[in-house]
C-alpha cells in the first residue's frame, strides 16, 4: 500500500536502503512528497533518484521501502 505523506513527514531525512542520507522531504501535497537531494550527493545517486543539481522531484511510491517517525527509507536502487 502506498504511503500517504502528511505535514509530519516534511523535513524527514531520506536515506538509502543501507542508511546513507541522500536528502530531505522538502514538501508534501495531496499525499505525495517532494524530495530535495543533498548538495553533496554523488552524480550516480542523483541519476538513480532522478534529480538534477538543485532540483526537487516527487518521490515515487515504488522507490520507498518504509516511512517511520524518523526517516524515509528507499528501496535498493
From TrEMBL:
- One Pfam short name: PRC
Q: Which InterPro entries match?
A: PRC-brl_dom, PRC_barrel-like_sf
The record's SUPFAM superfamilies line, in alphabetical order, gives: PRC-barrel domain
- The PRC-barrel domain covers 10-30
Put simply, this protein is called PRC-barrel domain-containing protein
- The record lists the organism as Halogranum amylolyticum
